[in-house]
Amino acid sequence: MDWFTAPEYWTSRLVFQRALAGVYLVAFLTAALQFRALMGERGMLPVPRFVEQVPFRRAPSLFHLHYSDRFFAACAWAGCAVSAALLAGLDSRLPLWAAMLLWFLPWMLYLSIVNVGQTWYAFGWESLLLEVGFLAVLLGNDEVAPPVLVLFLLRWILFRVEFGAGLIKMRGDECWRKLTCLDHHHETQPMPGPLSWFFHHLPRPVHRVEVAANHVTQLAVPVLLFTPQPIATAAASLMLLTQLWLVLSGNFSWLNWITIVLALSAVRFPSDPPSPGPGPAPLWYEVVVLAVGVLLVGLSCQPVRNMISRRQIMNRSFDPLHLVNSYGAFGSVSRIRYEVVVEGTADDAPREDSDWREYEFKGKPSDPRRWPRQFAPYHLRLDWMMWFAALSPAYAGTWFGALVERLLENDRDTLKLLRRSPFPADAPPRFVRARLFRYRYTTWRELRETGACWERTYVREYLPPTRLTGVAQRS
How far apart are alpha carbons 80 and 69 in whole angstroms? Predict the structure, then answer.
């Protein structure tokens, strides 16, 4: 079928697949290095406890069949290996059916991780990676040209990501309509990057232009994805540039990078397929692509209804396989930044004048003089959840007590998630407490005088001094 494939997108597919494999690699590496403390057998939210309570049909996962920390690690590192192989182009050297199975493997492994990840994996970019990764299975390899239907569905995802985010902003916080949100956002975002301080101090008229440009990119430009070339390429390129601007301004895990990957699939690069060109698509391949495409179009009804609803919900999966989802971010923007500062003491009695020592996190602000680092696309899951915990203790109800318990034990895996523990490995603290502080960026003058990028002010007690016997024991 000549209408089935689009040979002119040969290079677009190649670039898309290699970039997606890179994102997969980061996602699996994040899981492999952090899972033990977060959701391992002795983690804060253990997977074995979760699979006992949630049936397979609600959260399909290999870990319903068997779980051990060793098995989880094997799956995560296997995902890294397969992603690296895809990044190196192994799929292009395999038969079509084998290449599809190779792309299916990381999707299945990551689905298994996300569906037992609980709070630690409740982010929109997890579902986005799974939705995009599932379509990558159908995109083919060097044996066939890229299917038109799959290319369309990738643009459909990009449209929902951008347009959904634009709608949630216009319906949400009034600062988006007043063009004032970026007066606060760079300071209050979950995890600032090394340039966020400078973005915050841009002149306010520049912030107004940033917000207006965001509205254009998210509410008008996405429609152009479905127009003929070169307009569609121009639209995708504009989205790509916008995402790179966001990459510079903060640490948003791989949200911006997976959006860039999607935009690359819509860019038509000025090149032709290699000679000899691909052969005709096998009938079985056409049937599979058409059948799955029809299924995905049908499943899109719920995200569409959500987008047009006045009660639009951000980042919702409508099926346990995360095949079609809704997206959106920052429907509301905080005006004040709060941070939970965790401290411990080795003193026998926890007094205010005790020797309280602060735990330092890798990404979230702590020491006012320590400049933020760039971590994205790598995702520091505990640091992100600490930002939510500062917004409301309700966000920390399921895991914060377990974190404190593990700090009181000097748990090795938990301490690996931190930048620095103030206590030696063989001498854990007797008490741990948490206090809430207000953080604000320093001014140019304050930065020159003190060298600190943050100024912080004590607000209130977040958790009173707690010792090990006062924390719920593991079940």
Answer: 16
Kindly indicate the confidence band of residue 105, based on its pLDDT and cuts at 50, 70 and 90.
Answer: very high
Shortest CA distance to 181 belongs to which of 390, 330, 384?
330
DSSP structure class, residue 468 = G
Buried b (16+ CB within 10 A) or exposed e, 8-38: bbbbbbbbbbbbbbbbbbbbbbbbbebbbbb
The CA distances from residue 67 to 25, 46, 373, 413, 434, in Å, are: 22, 10, 35, 18, 33
pLDDT digits (tens, 9 = 90+) for 378-429: 999 999 999 999 999 999 989 999 999 999 999 999 999 999 999 999 999 9
- Report how far residue 113's alpha carbon sits from residue 171's, in angstroms, rounded to the nearest whole number: 33
- What are 287-291's contacts with CB under 8 Å, separation 24+? 288/138, 289/4, 289/138, 289/147, 289/149, 289/150, 290/149
List all residues 6 or more positions away from 174 whose beta carbon is below 8 Å from its beta carbon.
none
Q: Rounded to 5 degrees, what are φ and ψ at 297?
A: -65, -40
* Angle in degrees, CA 350, 354, 360, rounded to 5: 95
